Amino acid sequence: MSTTIWVFIAVLALIVGFAGGFFAARKYMENYLKKNPPIDENMLKAMMLQMGQKPSEKKLHQMMNAMKAQNNKKK
């Protein structure tokens, strides 16, 4: 086989490897963030306290439901 064919195969394998790696990493991160959301009720409560608000359970649940709805809306 000539050198140009080997170079073509190497470049093609590199492109396929990058594309496959990108989509596999993207899928992994989507699943990870779905299982481990970045903000939970304790974090939200701490943020509200830092802003000077007194968080009630009702308000915490409303905010968490709004965040979940917005997250589902994007998909």
UniProtKB/TrEMBL annotation:
Q: Where in the cell is it found?
A: Cell membrane; Membrane
The record's annotation in InterPro entries points to: UPF0154
- Topological type in the membrane: Single-pass membrane protein
User: Which Pfam families did the record assign?
Assistant: UPF0154
* Organism superkingdom: Bacteria
Membrane-spanning residues? 6-25
Q: What is its main location?
A: membrane
Task: Answer whether the UniProt record assigns the keyword Coiled coil to this protein.
Answer: no
Upper classification of the source organism reads: Bacteria, Bacillati, Bacillota, Bacilli, Lactobacillales
Which keywords belong to this entry?
Answer: Cell membrane, Membrane, Transmembrane, Transmembrane helix
Protein's name in the database: UPF0154 protein FC81_GL001452
Recorded GO cellular component terms are:
plasma membrane
Tell me its family.
Belongs to the UPF0154 family.
Record organism = Liquorilactobacillus capillatus DSM 19910
